[in-house]
User: What shape does this take?
Amino acid sequence: MFQTKRSFSMLLLMAFFGIAGFYWLNLGHADNPPSASIPKEMTSYREVVKKVLPAVVSVRATVANRVPARGERLMPDLRQFDLPDIMRERLEDLFERQPDEGMVRPMPFGSGVIIDPNGIVVTNHHVVAGASSVQISLLDGRIFYSKEIASDPKVDLAIIKLEVKEKLPALMFGNSDAMEIGDRVLAVGAPFGLEGSVTHGIISGKGRRAGMILYEDFLQTDAAINPGNSGGPLVNLAGEVVGISTAIRTTTGMAQGVGLVIPSNLVKDVAQQLSSKGRVVRGYLGIRFGELPPDVAEQMGLSMGKGAVVGQVYPNTPASKAGLQEGDVITAINGQALSDANAVQRTVLATPIGQSLELTVLREGKSLTINVKIEEQPMEYGLRDLPPTMGRRVPNQGQGMEEAIRIDRLGLEVTELTTEWRERLGYAKETKGVLITQVDRGSLAAQAGIRRGHVIVTLDQKPVQSPQALLKVADQASLKKGVVLQIRSPQGTDYVMLREQE
Assistant: This one.
């Protein structure tokens, strides 16, 4: 009997502590949710590749009636490169002259993707630029020839129309805006002429600019992209085209994990216009813009990446007519804060011609609203050099220049920006500020990239009226906190931060 009572008591104690332990584990630690499940690794991309490869093509463009000069080599000497024999032979074949077409210079080969089963191929403009005809090769061995080429060099895209008797395999566009850094992707094309090659990687960055073409809003990927991949698709794991490979950042000429890709949302719009009209009609502002550096944005009281600096305003454009000025910082469009600087470009491209945009800009510390009416962009805009902003170098002190004033704290010398110097250096007559005549090596100004011949327009968003005024303000400024200079340079207007290191 005693043993039974003791056993029963033990059971009660165990039950009590068991229940208490349950509540301690599940309620007492409610602040620590269970770890998120790790998605199962994809063991193979074979199903995606099977879907994609039939629609990816190789593009070989030629220019006829091109007679080489005496001693000119139409094919590079591939023996100087350490290439496997099979690769060298393939490249030599791609550069080989075609016997029945007279003197023909093969253009750089590339890749493309069929986006319409009725025979529409998308590739890069630089793959077919100047071509009189193109040869399109499918992975199944079919070959098509076409002279129907329409291209848009401003975004480095082109379409090729094929005459087909039956439907071709084609891929659909995905939503490039939905792609996020870390998403897995596949790059497909013909690197070094090796058709049907597939590499894998992730989206490494978005909104990249490289200064190569007029409209840039690249996706960045670490999927290997090499010569010959140009024009080929970057696809998501659903087999949808999320971009067109266009360039690589490299010091060797080969892939180094920095591939640049034109986003599919832009490709889709351009391809539709080229297919239906043979050209692209778009609106424009007529400015050069850039990202606002994070430290400068913070000093101005703006969130990082939320402002676009107007570097240049080109004459007789919608921006100049509306009164937009160099140095303005665009912070919002139609009341919507910018997500990044490239949002300016995306919004303008999506705005119908004739419609107005309300720009919120920061100018000399004050917020202004400017309405700009979008006009149709001239065809030649951006295809030739835009007006230069600066001519000669600044001469040394004493060569026809006003006496310079030293500003030791910034490590530079400045003088008055006279009408004569505006004309001699190529600055617009309305340019205001002071002219920099000397920058000390290793100074704060030199470290920020400031050079002789640049003009200081504002300091901490206040206009610089004279060298003496700049000296007075600079002497009172806190370099530990940092000062922001608006600088007029050969490339336009930018903001830089001068700050002493702690």
In short: The first helix runs from residue 2 to 26. The mean pLDDT is 80.
